[in-house]
Write a structure and sequence with these properties.
There is one protein chain. By secondary structure, this protein is of the alpha+beta class. Helix content is about 20%, strand content about 35%. It has six helices and 18 strands. It has helices at about 30-40, 75-85, 140-145, 170-175, 180-190, 225-240, and strands at about 1-10, 20-25, 45-50, 60-65, 70, 95-100, 105-110, 120-125, 130, 155-160, 160-165, 195-200, 210-215, 220-225, 250-255, 260-270, 275-280, 280-290. The chain has an 18-stranded mixed sheet that branches. A hairpin with a 6-residue loop joins strand 7 (about 105-110) and strand 8. The longest helix is centred in the N-terminal third of the chain and has 13 residues, at about 75-85. It starts with a strand and ends with a strand.
Length: about 290
């Protein structure tokens, strides 16, 4: 059995700049073990599998897999899958909206524009402050050693995945930071978190913040672009009355230190919900021939 298959760069306008994603557009007939095997084979951060909606109030149903396990929710797979379905003509927005159905529930997505100018933003699950810590907290000392910190205190946020957030004093401090991977892994395992997400305010005319996401467990790597992690930052900034603009909109730069150049758009609406999104560019299109 063959399945329609695409790969995209998400949060990017050119190949190689964003976070890669594989999408199986018609996943009917694939069992759980096959989906996990395909995700392991693609070796991309996530692979998504699209199924027909089970109800009239959803546009489609989605399952997301990393190479290791199924993922309840992630931002760049949600945004990228919507772009792929729109490109293929498989969904049509209603009043500028799509609805994604998955483990995290039914989540709306805003669609603006068309073609290469189109942006898609997903309303992320509500992120909450789990803990506000001091920089000299014994759990954080080794992870934050050598980093020049900003004004806001470190915080543990939970938006489906848990991240420690730490503000750095400047974009230059962020760009030149060298992560202590052993300390980050120890922190992640001790606090059941992904690791450390650092951010700094920027004077750049395009982005208001620069960010870096250091994943400590189950593997050690720097994420190229994470819509969900950035959504936890938006929730934290909202909690601290520290959003950079009065209308709740701002852009983030992520990934330059690992060879990418993603731009993620965040919007905190009047209800306090966080929308995470941006553009995407299709790189590969074809058929996946995988036994059912």
């Amino acid at each position: 059995m063959t399945h329609r298959y695409v790969q995209l760069d998400v949060f990017a306008t050119r190949p190689g700049a964003g976070n890669p994603l594989a999408v199986v557009l018609d996943a009917q007939g694939l069992e759980d073990a096959a989906m996990q095997a395909i995700a392991r084979w693609t070796r991309l951060p996530e692979t998504t599998f699209v199924f027909p909606a089970d109800s009239d109030d959803a546009s489609y149903r989605i399952r997301m897999f990393s190479p290791r396990r199924e993922v309840p929710f992630a931002g760049h797979p949600s945004v990228g899958t919507a772009h792929a379905l729109l490109d293929a003509g498989l969904v049509v927005p209603r009043d500028g909206m799509l609805v994604q159905d998955g483990i995290a529930g039914k989540l709306p997505l805003q669609v603006h524009g068309e073609g290469r100018e189109r942006t898609v933003a997903v309303r992320t699950p509500r992120a909450r402050v789990q803990e506000i810590a001091s920089p000299d907290d014994p759990r954080l000392q080794a992870t934050l050693a050598g980093l020049r910190l900003g004004t806001l205190p470190p915080a543990l946020m939970d938006g489906g995945r848990r991240w420690w957030l730490a503000e750095l004093a400047s974009e230059a401090d962020l760009r030149t930071a060298t992560p202590d991977w052993n300390a980050i892994s120890t922190l992640a395992e001790a606090t059941d978190s992904m690791g450390l997400f650092v951010y700094a305010r920027s004077e750049d005319p395009v982005h208001y913040f620069a960010v870096r996401a250091f994943v400590g467990a189950p593997a050690q790597f720097e994420d190229a672009a994470s819509g969900a992690a950035n959504a936890t930052l938006a929730a934290w900034l909202t909690d601290q009355n520290a959003l950079p603009s009065g209308d709740g909109f701002y852009r983030v730069s992520q990934g330059r230190e690992v060879g990418f150049d993603a731009i993620i758009e965040l919007q905190v609406d009047s209800a306090g919900d966080v929308w995470s999104g941006g553009r995407a560019v299709k790189v590969v299109e074809g058929e996946l021939d995988w036994p059912s």
